[in-house]
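User: Structure with 4'-deoxy-4'-aminopyridoxal-5'-phosphate, C-alpha cells only please.
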Amino acid sequence: MKNKDRVYNFSAGPSMLPYDVLESVAGQLTNYEGSGQSVMEMSHRSAEFETILDDTERNFREILSIPENYKVLFVQGGATLQFAMVPLNLLRKSKKADYILTGQWAKKAAEEAAKFGDVKITASSEESKFTYVPKVNRADFRSDADYVHMTSNNTIYGTRFPYVPDTGDIPLVADMSSDILAEKIDVSKFGLIYAGAQKNMGPAGLTIVIVRDDLLGFAANNVPTYLDYTTHANNKSMYNTPSTFPIYVAGEVLKKIIKDGGILAIEKANIEKAQKLYDYIDASSMFNCPVEKEDRSRMNVIFMTGDAQLDKKFVSEAKEQGMYNLAGYRSLGGMRASIYNAMPKEGIDKLVEFMKQFEVANRK
Ligand code: PMP
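Assistant:
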C-alpha cells in the first residue's frame, strides 16, 4: 500500500507511526540487516537484539538529554501497571503520596495507589469537568509525602500542564503516556517518568520508565519480582523476555526523530499543528473547544458543535473522507483529534479544510 492510500488516523492510541518507519520495518521484516531472520524471531539474548536495545536506549537518552543518574527501563503492562508499580516502589517512608487530579487517568493512578498507601488528592479540576489544569506549588503538598504524581497530558480531556509543579525535595512522578517525545523536557525536575509507547513512540506492548537512581531499592520483600524497578535496572531490562519487536520499532522512530532535527524540531512542528487547529476552532461559529487556552493539549484537541447529532454526522462524514477516529471519548462525546508526532501537517490541513466545508454545509 502506498502512502497516498493510507488514512489520517486521529486515534488517541495506538495511533499513526511515521510512514518511512513503517516502510523500513516492512523492508526488513523477514530478514533484518542480513541476519537471515526477522526481529520477531530473534533471541532477545542475541548480539543483534542487544545492539537494537542498546541503540534504542542511547538514542532515547540523547533525544531527551536524560542525565546519567537516571535509569531507562523497557517494561510491559502499559501505563496501567505503572499505576501500581509507582506506589509499590516509591512509598518508602511515610507511605503518603499526593496526586494532582486532572482527568480519568490521573484518577485511576490515584485509586490504584490508594490500595498501597495514604493518597491525598492535592488539587483537582474535576469540578469543571477537567477543562483546565490546577496551579499548584510547594506549599500544597504534604511535606512528608513520598512522592507527588501528575499526568502531564490528559488524553481524554485535551489538557496539558503548561508548567512543571515545584515539589521541593519531594520526588515528582509524571505519567507522560500521551506526550512523551512531544516536546523538550527537563528530566532532572522529575524523580520518575513513565509512558506507554503506543502514542508517540511505537507499537503497543512497550512501556518506558525513566527513574532516578536514588529512588531504586525500596520495594518491600513481598513485591513481585517483575514489579520491582531494581529487577529491570539490574538486568538492563532483560530480566525476562522484553517486548522485542515494539522496542525495535520504537528504536526506528527514535532514529527518525534524530534525523528530523531532534526534539526541538518535533516540538516546533507540534506547536504549529495544534495552533492551526485551535485557531480555526476559535474563529469558527460552529465548533467550540471547552479547554482553557493556556492549558490546551498539543496532542489531543477536543472540540464539539454542541449538537450530538451534528457531531455524529461530522465524525461519520470525516471518515468517508479518510479521516478516522475523530469521535470524542465515550463519556464526553463531541470530537477529539489526536495529533501525535506522526500526524503529518497535511492531516491537519485536510481536517481544517473539511471542518470549513462542514460548517458551510450545515449552517442553520
Ligand atoms: N495514562 C494516560 C495519560 C493515557 O492516555 C493512557 C491510555 N490512553 C493510560 C495512562 C493507560 O495506558 P495503557 O493502556 O498503556 O495502560
